[in-house]
Fold each of these.
Amino acid sequence: ARVLLQLAAASGASSGGRSTGEGRTEAVALLEEVLEEDSDHGRANVAWATAVESERGNLAAAEARLRGVTSREPFLAEGWRALGRVLEQAGRTGEAEAAYRDGLDYQPRDPGLHALLGLSLAERGEIEAATSHLEAASDFSPSPRPDVHEGLAAVAVARGDWPRAEAEARRAIELEPARASAWNHLAVALEEQGRTDEALAAYGRAREADVTYWQAVFNRGLLLRKLGRSEQAIAAFQEVLRQSPGHAPSHYELGVLHGARDEPGLAREHLEAALEAKRIRGHALSDSYGGSDTTEIPALDRWMPTVTVHLGGHSQEGGASTLSQ
């Protein structure tokens, strides 16, 4: 069973000149052989739940399989990690965090469990607890992990520790240059330190790394507006709306910019769209982006739209403004 499991992992990781589909088919077939030989094989069940059931959207079956694994082999950290990810995929964040904590009771030095729990806590705004787990993940990892450094950058941003945020984001980028959200965190840290040209360049690098990453385009638009470059700011917010048409803060920013340009028709159109998006999608609107005393959106939302993670793959639409004018 161990040999077949290793072969399955190798087939799934590299197609060896064949198509990805062929390699995956062979990996699944080999996993089936492992499970036929030993239906309770822990790692094979984790691989099946993750690579087959979860990917096919059968989360209930994946959860049941993984709960069986964690019951039979509670010291198998990857079982707890996989269970938590499936629960997160199902939108059950609290239960996912409970799974990570249960796993840490058995494997308190597992970097993966610390990382997953830390990233989840960061997205919920539990900054101190998130920092503690992410630092533990960094300490216990045998080699540097870009997701951990990106998570540490995000929580540093939330605390307003701009030098730490810059350092952690740069470390994540050094390890994985195409990590768009890390470039975004770096840009925010540079912007807050007054290094606006570097910040604009970093926002651009985030976009180059992932053309669908509109959050960096939005943040770049905010900076361009602050710099008085209204034409470029308008173009940035329009680009956001092409990818996320119901993004209330972008509509609001366009409304204000068009109003300042004495274009009342366009201003009204975008302000009404912002109000409608807020009504339908529940966007919080306040006086500033990134967390004033009146904001209803945590400061982290502006800068951490994902742990596809991103940081974990969760998408939050950050930024908000008042429509009281």
Amino acid sequence: SPCSASGATLLAWLAAASGSPDLLAEVAKAADAEPATIPGIAAALSWLGAEHVATAVTALWSTGPGAKRAVLASIGDLRADAGDLISRGCRDEDADVRIAAWASAARLGRRDLATTATTATTALTMEHPGERAAAACALALATPAAPPSALLRAAMTMPGAIGDLAVDLFTRLLPTEQVDPEVVRPHAGRSFRAALGRGTVAEVDRLVALLALHPARYAFDAILTITGVDPKSAGLTGHAPAEDPSAGLALDPHRDAPWPDVAAVTRWWNAFRGNLDPGCRYLAGQAVNLAFCTTLVACADQRTRGLAALELAILGHPWPATGAPSPSALRGMAVA
């Protein structure tokens, strides 16, 4: 019978942790039969960490396109390029595998692929819009000083992970330029992704004002990610309303965002905002810079670790992770 998404995640975790060939074969079968299982399989590999999944990555890569896509997604999440798999993925005969490979190249900041591989130019002329979009994301990271291309702007309209990545890149490469609301409105969570990319005092002002309209916990989560404040010690958490007006807008399916106390958040922000430079972009309470982002990649929670790794890629210092993230030390080191 078809494997459920949650079942495939557990199966992938067990298969990768044990290295069982039989279980890995079942994982590959699930990925090829049901694409909805691929994100969960990739998440399981990511959580185990690079040093624990080498056998699994090798075994899964030798199977079908669904398993290859899961491997490539996990490589992007882990920020650890397993040999030449991304290069091979960019040349794969399956378009969806090529899309996954270009997306991972972008997340890893693989400028060598984007600037020297002849497939880059080819990908930008492909008929498949997803492949053009993914390649545009990789090329945007290859030349971050240049304005994002029209292709990257177009990529933001794509559904799914490629469109999310395009928003992540666009808002960091041009943080003062607003994303067209018509681009982000149809896609759950993208307005909050854009807020994280800009990361400015003005953006937190906007998010706090949004809380006053309805207590959206994902707007609150964006505030916490930008400022680094510990919501419990600062007394900013509240109670869930009878009906969740922000349901379905999660930035990370593994993240359980807290509910805000809107009045407390407003008071805290009014007192705290003067500590930040209006001209800087912030992540976890500090201005985005090489040293701090390197620290975050080593010890922050999974989502913040990924955001910091993307910043490093844009700065030209991609960080290949060597293992699963440690428990978060983010709150304590960012904002007292």
